[in-house]
Amino acid sequence: MAAASLGALIRLIHGEDTKVRLLSEASYRAGSWTRTRRVVYKVEILEKGVNTRFVVTNRAESSIELYDGHYVMRGEAENRIKDYKDALRADRLSCCAFLANQFRLFLHAAAYWLLDSLRGRLSSKGFGRMQLDTLRLRALKIAGRVKQMAGRVRLYLASAHPGQRLWQALYMATKPAHE
Q1: Same domain, yes or no, for 54 and 84?
Q2: Do residue 148 and residue 99 come from a single domain?
Q3: Do 94 and 147 belong together in one domain?
């Protein structure tokens, strides 16, 4: 692994690569620990700087299986929780009644499902995966006019708003085949 990592670092220096990723492990014992522990570490050298991560573990997987298969997936779950709490303010359960808070939580879950579905549709159309608060700001927090007609509801938006490309992509992704 050291030779491959050295080669990747040389390619970065010569401008052939924009990213180098080094992943390995070592034994370490901090002053307050009673025993030596396994530490898996990852170092990425990117154009914008160095990104370092350390994981102390007792799991038996190889370094790459542990980091990519367990640690990164755990981080993804934490990102979803962050989206739910921060972007949707789902932690605001300030009513005195349990049922009122339960209903608020239900509404937040429905909003999460809707925004996550929109995010998935946009990703399938070539838009980068974005956090829910970014999606909410770009696609939902824009001025518009809603007109209800006999059999449909029409949404009128400004002709040049910041989320226009997102709305066009969502329209194309949800447009019925017969239109």
Answers
A1: no
A2: yes
A3: yes
Is the Cβ–Cβ distance between 116 and 137 less than 8 Å? no
Structure-model confidence comparison of residues 3 and 106, the more confident one: 106
Count of domains forming the chain: 2
User: pLDDT by residue (tens digit) across 76-122?
Assistant: 888 888 888 888 888 888 888 999 999 998 999 999 999 888 888 88
> Nearest-CA neighbor of 132 among 171, 165, 89?
89
Q: Could you tell me the residue range of the domain that residue 14 belongs to?
A: 1-58
Q: What is the DSSP string of 66-115?
A: IIIIIIHHHHHHHHHHHIIIIIS-TT----SSHHHHHHHHHHHHHHHHHH
CB within 8 Å of 22: residues ≥ 6 apart = 5, 8, 42, 43, 44, 45
Under 8 Å between Cβ of 25 and 38: yes
What are 22's strand-pairing partners?
A: 43
Query: Is residue 70 domain-resident?
Result: no
In angstroms, the Cα distances linking 158 to 50, 146, 161, 166 are 42, 12, 6, 13
Q: What is the pTM of this model?
A: 0.59
Neighbours of 116 (CB within 10 A): 15
Which residue type occupies 102?
A: Q
